[in-house]
Design a protein that fits this description.
Layout: H1 4-18, H2 21-30, H3 38-57, H4 61-83
Helix pairs in contact: 1-4, 2-4, 3-4
């Protein structure tokens, strides 16, 4: 059974992860990433990977799931930034 604090973590992580979906969709549809900062997303991606490693270390399902998804979404934005130059 998932502890109450993990449910809170899943909710918080789910909301913050979901906030990336509109940006990924907009960038994909417009084929423009001019307004995105490559440096910001590269640093953010590294931070998310470190949070994922931390989540694995402390065995937090919320951190593992949400940071995995956020890593993919931020990597997509990095790809779009490089692709749509």
């Amino acid at each position: 059974m998932i502890a109450s604090i993990e449910i809170l973590g899943l909710l918080a992580g789910g909301l913050t992860t979901a906030s990336f979906v509109p940006q990924v969709y907009k960038t994909y549809k417009s084929k423009s990433a001019d307004s995105l900062s490559l440096t910001m997303y590269a640093v953010f991606f590294v931070g998310i990977i470190l949070w994922l490693i931390y989540g694995i270390y402390v065995n937090s399902i919320a951190m593992m799931v949400t940071n995995s998804i956020t890593a993919v979404l931020s990597l997509m934005l990095i790809y779009f930034k490089l692709r749509f130059k």
